[in-house]
Design brief:
The structure is a single chain. This protein has about 250 residues and is mostly beta strands. It has no helices and 19 strands. It has two domains: about 130 residues, Immunoglobulins (Immunoglobulin-like, Sandwich); about 100 residues, Immunoglobulin-like (Sandwich). Helix content is about 0%, strand content about 60%. Strands 2, 4, 5, 7, 9 and 12 form a six-stranded mixed sheet that branches. The protein has a four-stranded antiparallel sheet with strand order 1-3-8-6, with no helix packed on it. The protein has a four-stranded antiparallel sheet with strand order 16-15-18-19, with no helix packed on it. Strand 15 and strand 16 form a beta hairpin. It is elongated and about 70 Å long.
Length: about 250
């Protein structure tokens, strides 16, 4: 129904500076679309669930720093348009703040023929959420730490692994990493890639993974996680006993 440039947007400005953002939209439909945009807040729970909130109600919200030039546009079939946003980084801001711009599209109600006595009308709508990050230039302090690296007893032929990370800095961070299983000679026996993830400033995230049970013996589980130009590591020793217990 609606095509929208819904990738995340990051705008870096000096404290006190103003900037502009654009969100492009296209109506590929055969009918006119009414497209509405509005600003809200969002966060991600420690379990990784994304939640939406009214503007200005969560920590590090940038909702009050964004302004839409217009909140409603009508696009004819095949027509392109854009929402323009002005953004401000106040002098007191440090690091990054975030908000979300929601874009919704609706078309005229369609009529479905039933009997001569009854007609059913229905409306189709589609919503996109675009994350906006406003960064105060020169104030970024990327920091992070591990809170947990642990293994559980074997389940379904695998050893479950729990990894918890906290963003202790003031900047939204993107992470990449892997788990390594090593013996005590340092030989790497297995490498498990972690899916990319991100954490807002001051927030925590718990990740679940698994490794293959190695032969009976003592081993080292190593977690290596990169964010920006920095790498951090955590390790946990474990033992595999006879019968696959750890």
């Amino acid at each position: 129904m609606l095509q929208c440039s819904f990738e995340d947007r990051t705008l870096e400005l000096s404290p006190g500076e103003r900037g502009q953002l654009e969100i492009e939209v296209l109506n590929p439909d055969t009918q006119p679309l009414a497209i509405r945009a509005y600003i809200g807040d969002w966060l991600r729970t420690e379990a990784g669930e994304q939640q939406f909130h009214p503007p200005g109600t969560v920590a590090n919200s940038a909702a009050g720093q964004l302004r839409l030039a217009e909140s409603l546009i009508i696009l004819e079939p095949g027509e392109e348009g854009k929402f323009q946003l002005s953004a401000t980084v106040p002098p007191e801001q440090e690091g990054s703040r975030t908000a979300m711009v929601f874009v919704e599209a609706e078309r005229a109600p369609q009529t479905e023929s039933g009997s001569a006595e009854m007609q059913i009308k229905f409306q189709i709508s589609l919503r996109y959420g675009i994350k906006i990050y406003l960064v105060a230039r020169g104030t970024q302090q990327p920091r992070s730490r591990f809170l947990e690296l642990s293994l559980e007893p074997q389940q379904a032929g695998k050893l479950p692994v729990t990894l918890a990370v906290e963003n202790t800095g003031n900047l939204h961070l993107k992470y990449r990493g892997q788990l390594e299983v090593r013996d005590f000679t340092g030989k790497v026996l297995e490498v498990v890639e972690l899916p990319p993830f991100s954490i807002l400033p001051g927030a925590k995230l718990k990740l679940e993974s698994q490794i293959e049970p190695p032969p009976v013996g003592e081993y080292l589980l190593l977690a290596l996680v990169d964010y920006g130009s920095k790498t951090m590591a955590a390790e946990a020793q474990f033992m595999v006993k006879g019968g696959g217990d750890s």
